[in-house]
Amino acid sequence: MSTTAEHPAAAASEAPTDDRTDDRDRASDRLDAALRADVRLLGELLGRVLVEAGGSDLLDDVERLRALTIDAYEGGADDAFARAEALVDGFTTERAEQVAKAFTVYFHLANLAEEHHRVRVLRERASGPEAIDDSLAAAVERLTDEVGDDEARRRLRGLRFHPVFTAHPTEARRRAVASAIRRVSDLLGAREGAALGALPTAELDRRLLEEVDTLWRTSPIRTTRPTPQDEVRTAMSIFDQTVFQVVPRVYRLLDDWLLGDRAGLDAAQAPAFVRYGSWIGGDRDGNPFVTAQVTEEAAAIQAEHVLRGLEAAATRIGRTLTQDSAQTPPDAALEALAARQAELAPEVASRIGIRAPHEPHRRVLLVIAARIAATRTGDARLAYPVPEALVDDLRIVQASLRAGGAARSANGELQHLIWQVETFGFHLAELEVRQHSKVHRQALEEIRAGGERSEMTVEVLEVFRAIKRLQQRYGVRAARRYIVSFTQSAEDLGNVFALAAAAFDDPAEVPVLDVIPLFETFADLDASTGILDGLIALPQVQARLAETGRSLEVMLGYSDSSKDVGPVSASLALNLAQRRIADWAEVNDIELTLFHGRGGALGRGGGPANEAVLAQPPGSVDGRFKLTEQGEVIFARYGDQQIAVRHLEQMAAATLVASSPSNEARNRQAASDFAELGTRLDRTSRARFFELVKADGFAPWYAQVTPMEEVGQLALGSRPARRGLSVESLEDLRAIPWVFSWTQARINLTGWFGLGSALAEVGDEAALHDAYERWPLFTAMIDNVEMSLAKTDERIARRYLELGDRDDLAQLVLDELALTREWVVRVAGRGGMLEGRPVLRRTVRLRSPYVDALSLLQLRALRTVRAAVEPSPDDPDRRLLLLTVNGVAAGLQNTG
Question: Which residue among 178, 278, 518, 609 is least packed, with the fewest CB closer than 10 Å?
Answer without folding.
Answer: 178
